[in-house]
Amino acid sequence: MTRGSLRRGVRALLARSPRLEAIAVAARRGSLPRDAPSGTVPLRPLRPPPVDEDNHPEALALAPFCVGKGIDVGCGHRKVTPDCIGVDLLAAGELGEHGVVSGQRSVADLQASGDDLHMFVDGELDFVVSRHNLEHYVDVVRTLQEWARVTRVGGIVAMIVPDERAGDTIFLDPTHKHSFTPESLARLVSLVGGLEVVETRVVTRRWSFMLVARKVESGAR
Questions:
Q1: Residue 38: what pLDDT?
Q2: Which residue range is the domain that position 161 belongs to?
Q3: 0.90 exceeded by the pTM?
């Protein structure tokens, strides 16, 4: 098959599917995955569940792991516990633009990206927690490695992410880059090295799940 005939075949396929064509156009413009084309809609739409912000189930699920010195990565406008060191791309007081932080002021103690925690030395922290943060990184492996690096042996890395089993989570926020199920995230964490998966469980039904991992000695797994 020549290159020309291949192009014609692809164009014919796209012409039969307006949705595919819209995605292809957006990809050529470099607007995916941040900006989905106007004709693209989730096949399994999700609606954020109503929650009591003062007793948020995701914060309550992570709070028991926040013992000692640790960070809340992507804390946004609400840290898991007051004693967490809040880390966020937005400096304290800046307004969020997307998702649940839209119009909310950051309460971060440190302005930084969660995949570059150079301000912490190896093994400095007792815990790293995050809510709806991992799915925003292009390189999730690097991010998990960085979280493992700053955590002491025996320390905890616990994260809550949208549950892809419930719907198309990539559409919840224009800055989402990845989607996860408990099984896929557990495999990823296990492959990264330095972390041992302790548990995965649903936190908010048809919305989110939590994965808890423990930092282990290199080669101990």
A1: 44
A2: 53-215
A3: no
